[in-house]
Design goal:
Radius of gyration: 12 Å
InterPro entries: Endophilin_SH3RF (IPR050384), SH3-like_dom_sf (IPR036028), SH3_domain (IPR001452)
Structural class: alpha+beta
Keywords: Repeat, SH3 domain
Protein name: SH3 domain-containing protein
Shape: globular
Length: 97
Amino acid sequence: MRNATNASSKSDHGLDVQAWQLKHSANRIAGGADVVPQNAETYRALYPYEPQNADELQLMENDIVFVVEKCDDGWYIGTSLRSGQFGTFPGNYVQRH
């Protein structure tokens, strides 16, 4: 498990996020929190996370996040139920719900 100090050392996932959104936008899967992405796994945030880049998702403790992809570097891509925002976040900040 990585610690918070290593959180900003991820690869740039901006293109991953854009590609996923484009691929699924026709099916309205990348919509707001009122739409649960198809085949998403539900996770709960264990810790708050403040985005360091534009493609990242803010997490507050106990947020529910619908994870649509797990990247090889330990970062996840998903949608926050609270905010409806879509982006990347460190996978070690969440737990399967």
